[in-house]
């Protein structure tokens, strides 16, 4: 019984250690996704403006290669955003599973009387 109790305490400690890191990573991924959306909007705006300038130029200035580069950059931004979105969803599931496991282990420990001798502030 003591070995199981020690394993549960170690597992709970690991879960408590991982939970803040997971939340921090989730916040960073969310922030990056927001900046990716903003970058994509700026790329779209710039591409539109280049097309407009190209249409109104009296001098034959070929901006198509630059527009294509911008659109390629936009495509990569969207791809990275999708990857980040998938990573964030996995982090959310992991965070949910960590919280669920923490609650389950805490309930098991409380039921076995491990927390009976500890004060509520611990």
Automatic annotation (TrEMBL):
Superkingdom as given in the UniProt entry: Eukaryota
Pfam families: Snapin_Pallidin
Gene Ontology CC, one term: BLOC-1 complex
GO MF, one example: SNARE binding
Transport as UniProt keyword: no
Stretch forming the signal peptide: none
GO biological process: endosome to lysosome transport; intracellular protein transport; lysosome localization; lysosome organization; regulation of synaptic vesicle exocytosis; synaptic vesicle exocytosis
Keyword Coiled coil: yes
Coiled-coil intervals, chain numbering: 70-104
Keywords: Coiled coil
PANTHER family assigned: SNARE-ASSOCIATED PROTEIN SNAPIN (PTHR31305:SF2)
Family of this protein: Belongs to the SNAPIN family.
Listed name of the protein: Biogenesis of lysosome-related organelles complex 1 subunit 7
Taxon lineage: Eukaryota, Metazoa, Chordata, Craniata, Vertebrata
């Amino acid at each position: 019984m003591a070995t199981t109790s020690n394993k549960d305490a170690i597992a709970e400690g690991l879960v408590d250690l991982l939970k803040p890191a997971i939340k921090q990573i989730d916040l960073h991924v969310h922030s990056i996704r927001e900046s990716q959306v903003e970058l994509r909007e700026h790329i779209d705006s710039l591409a539109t403006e280049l097309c407009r300038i190209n249409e109104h130029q009296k001098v034959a200035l070929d901006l198509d290669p630059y527009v294509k580069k911008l659109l390629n950059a936009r495509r990569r931004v969207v791809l990275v955003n999708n990857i980040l979105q998938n990573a964030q969803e996995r982090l959310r599931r992991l965070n949910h599973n960590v919280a669920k496991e923490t609650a389950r282990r805490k309930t098991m420990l409380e039921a076995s009387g491990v927390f009976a001798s500890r004060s509520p502030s611990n």
